[in-house]
Amino acid sequence: MPDNALINDPNGGMPRLLEIMRRLRDPESGCPWDIEQNFASIAPYTIEEAYEVADAIDRADWTDLRSELGDLLLQVVFHAQIAQDEEHFSFDDVAQAISDKMVARHPHVFGTESRDKSPEQQTRDWETVKAAERAERAETGTLSGVALGLPALLRAVKLQKRAARVGFDWPHTTQVLDKIAEEMAELQEAAASGDADHTEEEFGDLLFVMANLARHMNIDPEAALRGANAKFTRRFERIEALLAASGKSPQDSDLAEMDALWDHAKSEEKRRPR
């Protein structure tokens, strides 16, 4: 009979969570679902949990944030347990690696360098340290190490930032706007040709340049799109509420009526005090 003292200890902290995951992955007595998982199968859950953390922050729901951070921490523990099972590394190795990295990247806090630096200088120093780390890993290309698994808009911005560091960038926002107009024309031309693959390619080019515009305007494109999604959801739910008040649903309506209700919902928001 296994000893469940730590498992049932509400004050067990991190050792308790690690033991729970170890037991879940035990080949003989663990959970069949947890046992059959691998890095690739749980990676989508890891990404999803990170987004749910961001969502809780956006909503300023601190109780939910506590829960979502726990879910995200579980993902780290899960990956580390799989790694230990396969004899790659342990959770302690993960903790040691990130601790070493933070100390190395903050010599102005943990070393002898002066803290009397601007945030901009600290950012430049941070990038210098990261560049040295990439060189140690033989990642010598300007774009090396930008993770493929990042959300596409975020990865676009990171790629563009890397290129900008070596001078491959438009100096003025107006040039980016000109490029957007050029890409829009190319998208329209591709769409008119009926070539689906070419149209998709040109659409991607347009999104890439839009991400570049966001970077030039110091806008986080992911955050901006999340805001647009939230606005659309809020206004469409208002359309549904207005239709329901008259005994109707969207299926009973048409575009003209819903578009008018959209304008009504939009005007309601503008009248609200900010």
Structure overview:
With 274 residues, the protein is an all-alpha fold. The chain folds into three domains: 13-104, Helix Hairpins; 141-219, MazG-like (Helix Hairpins); 223-271, no CATH class. Helices cover 72% and strands 0% of the residues. The protein starts with 12 loop residues before the first helix and ends with a helix.
Report the portion of residues in β strands.
Answer: under 5%
**What order do the helices and strands follow?**
HHHHHHHHHHHH
Measured as a percent range, the helix fraction is over 70%
Number of strands: 0
Radius of gyration: 25 Å
Which CATH architecture of the largest domain is right? Orthogonal Bundle
Largest sheet: none
Distance between the termini: 60 Å
Low-confidence stretches: none
Count of helix runs = 12
CATH topology of the largest domain: Helix Hairpins
Q: CATH H level of the largest domain: which superfamily? A: MazG-like
Q: Based on helices, strands and strand pairing, what is the structural class? A: mainly alpha
Shape: globular
CATH classification class of the largest domain = Mainly Alpha
Q: What is the subunit arrangement here?
A: single chain
The count of domains is: 3
Average the pLDDT over all residues and give the rounded result.
91
Organism: Roseovarius pelagicus
EC number: 3.6.1.9
Biased composition (Basic and acidic residues): 261-274
InterPro entries: MazG-like_dom, NTP-PPase_MazG-like_C, NTP-PPase_MazG-like_N, NTP_PyrPHydrolase_MazG
